[in-house]
Amino acid sequence: MLKKFLFLLTVVAVVAAGGGNVTAQTLEPEFEGEVMGVYPDGSSKRLEKHTVQTRTGGSVLVAGFAVNKAKTKILIEGARANVRFDNARPIALVVRVKDNAADPMSIVRIFRMKPAKKRRTAVIAAAGTFHVTSNDMDYLSFSARKYGESSYYLTLDESPVGEYGITVSNPNNIDEKMVIVSTFGIDGNTTEK
Asked: Which residues have C-beta within 8 Å of that of residue 17, sequence separation ≥ 6?
């Protein structure tokens, strides 16, 4: 609340001093793990958070042999995220973390999800009889800087059209019980939010 008051006080002072155009500043998300999408006009929108369902299963026949190939997927209800970005404009996110002294690459993951009619999925591991367990996720790269008291300001290095999820891990918590995924989508050359 104090941050909002100080921000409004600053806006009033700038306008009173003849500062002219004032753009809104994106505040840090309220809770650890939350993510805000930042639009080029300075507005922001909180990304939806989802608790993750996981599903493991599957086997295939190869040359008459039953080969066990298990894939572990995360499942999120709904085919599309409500928060959307235009890939023709820069895409930025503010991510609240436990402590922004850590390398953001070690705790923030932005990954592509495969949309279907009723849900979005991402394969987090695949194991088979003839190969080693692997991580098949397609990650987006980003640039980051510290933002506020305990957040990072992320700028996507690339913005291919698709559905995406973000996970934020806590490096101080070894035994995380629940995975939360924040979601957003990137559309091709639109102005939809």
From this structure: none
CB count in 10 Å sphere of residue 20? 7
Helix, strand, or coil here: 15?
helix
The continuous run of DSSP H or E covering 156 comes out as strand 151-156
> Would you put residue 64 in left (φ > 0), alpha (ψ -120 to 50) or beta?
left
Rounded CA-CA distance 27/15 in Å is 20
**Residue 20 banded pLDDT, cuts 50, 70, 90:** very low
pLDDT digits (tens, 9 = 90+) for 145-168: 999 999 999 999 999 999 999 999
Model pTM score: 0.73
